[in-house]
């Protein structure tokens, strides 16, 4: 696995790449995450797929940006695929990354062989002020972890973005930036969801606060060639809550493409 960088216009973005001569899957994390979110999947699929994990703008080791519109994210992804010299890829995205994946497919259907969309809908109306009032720095790593536990949020998910500098322990992302990014994700995107008919795996957790089971079933019913897999005991972070089950259904779906 190799960490690399490329430029989308003047923004330097980071990614990891298994750099093998295999079919390509590009993974896109959700808000407040980073590319390492899908490193376990990268390892699970390394015998059959070249899995490339992108740190999207404002996340991980990628640069912070001034703008986080839908067009910004989709242009980054397009520039990334051109940078890699790829004609066609499979896109996997969770939450923010899932919207980016199916909206990119709607605009560039010739470049997307298939989609794996993880717990995000065609209509999105979720809180956008998460983490805005969090302290910027903590004196110790344990203090940061204790704060996450107090917030009843995912210590594992946010832990992927933890960093230490001369001011103490904090996060690589800027909460106010990602709040603006979330604002742009809100809306009705049914036209984008229904614009393509490439093979698609839709994954939903019954305990999710982002995508309801009813909407997930409607998405699968309305769009051709869409397979819905539900995880009754999982919430929004299916890939973390049941990694074995998640990796298994993704692998099975991808095998059908080979």
Explain the overall architecture.
Pfam families: Abhydrolase_1. InterPro entries: AB_hydrolase_1, AB_hydrolase_fold, AB_hydrolase_sf, Peptidase_S33. GO terms for molecular function: peptidase activity. The structure is a single chain. The chain has 258 residues and is an alpha/beta fold. It has one domain (2-125, 185-255): Rossmann fold (3-Layer(aba) Sandwich). It contains 10 helices and 12 strands. It has helices at residues 39-44, 70-84, 96-107, 141-150, 155-159, 175-185, 190-193, 213-222, 238-241, 243-255, and strands spanning 2-8, 11-17, 24-28, 50-54, 89-94, 112-118, 123-124, 162-165, 168-171, 187-188, 200-205, 226-231. The strands form 3 sheets. An 8-stranded mixed sheet has the order 1-2-4-3-5-6-11-12, sandwiched between helices. It has a two-stranded antiparallel sheet with strand order 7-10. It has a two-stranded antiparallel ribbon with strand order 8-9. β11, α8 (213-222) and β12 form a beta-alpha-beta unit. α2 packs across α3 (96-107). The longest helix is centred in the first third of the chain and has 15 residues, at 70-84.
């Amino acid at each position: 696995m190799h960490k690399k960088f490329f430029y989308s216009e003047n923004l330097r973005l980071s990614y990891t790449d298994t750099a093998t001569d295999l079919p390509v899957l590009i993974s896109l994390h959700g808000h407040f995450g980073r590319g390492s979110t899908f490193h376990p999947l990268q390892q699970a699929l390394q015998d059959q797929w070249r899995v490339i994990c992108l740190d999207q703008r404002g996340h991980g080791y990628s640069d912070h940006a001034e703008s986080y519109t839908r067009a910004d994210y989709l242009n980054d992804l397009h520039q990334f695929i051109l940078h890699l010299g790829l004609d066609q890829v499979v896109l996997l995205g969770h939450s923010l990354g899932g919207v980016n994946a199916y909206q990119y497919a709607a605009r560039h259907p010739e470049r997307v062989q298939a989609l794996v969309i993880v717990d995000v809908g065609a209509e999105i109306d979720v809180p956008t002020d998460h983490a805005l009032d969090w302290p910027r720095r903590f004196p110790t790593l344990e203090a940061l972890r204790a704060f996450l536990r107090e917030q009843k949020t995912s210590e594992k998910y946010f832990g992927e973005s933890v960093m230490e500098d001369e001011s103490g322990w904090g996060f690589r992302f800027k909460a106010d930036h990602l709040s603006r990014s979330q604002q742009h994700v809100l809306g009705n995107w049914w036209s984008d969801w229904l614009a393509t008919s490439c093979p698609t795996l839709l994954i939903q957790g019954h305990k999710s606060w982002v995508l309801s089971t009813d909407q997930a079933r409607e998405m699968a019913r309305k769009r051709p060639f869409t397979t819905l897999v539900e995880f009754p005991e999982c919430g929004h972070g299916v890939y973390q809550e049941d990694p074995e089950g998640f990796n298994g259904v993704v692998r099975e779906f991808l095998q059908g493409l080979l």
